[in-house]
Amino acid sequence: xxxxxxxxxxxxxxxxxxxxxxxxxxxxxxxxxxxxxxxxxxxxxxxxxxxxxxxxxxxxxxxxxxxxxxxxxxxxxxxxxxxxxxxxxxxxxxxxxxxxxxxxxxxxxxxxxxxxxxxxxxxxxxxxxxxxxxxxxxxxxxxxxxxxxxxxxxxxxxxxxxxxxxxxxxxxxxxxxxxxxxxxxxxxxxxxxxxxxxxxxxxxxxxxxxxxxxxxxxxxxxxxxxxxxxxxxxxxxxxxxxxxxxxxxxxxxxxx
Length: 256
Ligand SMILES: C[S@@+](CC[C@H](N)C(=O)[O-])C[C@H]1O[C@@H](n2cnc3c(N)ncnc32)[C@H](O)[C@@H]1O
Description:
2 domains, 20% helix, Rossmann fold, 5 helices, binds S-adenosylmethionine, globular, seven-stranded mixed sheet, S-adenosyl-L-methionine-dependent methyltransferases
């Protein structure tokens, strides 16, 4: 039995900020890559409509790019994030659940665990999430796991910032990732939100700390193999490579 996990504020009372902070357009390249993997994997087989499950699907920013062509199901721990998903892509079936333990009683052609896998904090939790993926895949089905960082790609002290405005508010945010203890398997992402109300000109500053898991390529591949996948490691374009973005690391498994 897993300890119930309290969501960071971004996925809880601040979930309304998610579509502004990390808009669906930011997921276009990733979704194209995932679509390419599905098309390649099932090429040559009968062209039935494929079913896709995303574990930790959040606001549906990846699924929105796939839902026209695949039957999509979104699982997430956070009800406010699933509400975002339903608003954005009503045709996606949403289910509240924990990727470490959820069982939907059905199987899919493909299962993705995208950036949400960052919230698996140790080997046991990663293995549980992989078991969930296996349990929901048809034989020969495709599993793609895409952590934001691996040990090999992590940049200690990386800073990012962005901002956006509506008629009533200006939102600026900073993210800072660091590894407080290289001896354990986690890193911390600190998010700062500055929300300015245009009418009153007041600025609220909110700090939101996320603890995330950090594992090596070899660990991901070994654990996927143990979970019943024929697994490989791929690098894909992340956003605009011309803008200096690092390639995106993916772990691709075929259920044996
Ligand atoms: C970065 S967001 C994912 C965004 C998503 N890729 C999208 O397209 O909007 C991370 C998500 O992981 C979810 N999450 C974290 N731990 C989880 C768990 N144990 N089971 C299911 N979802 C989880 C959070 O609730 C959050 O919605």
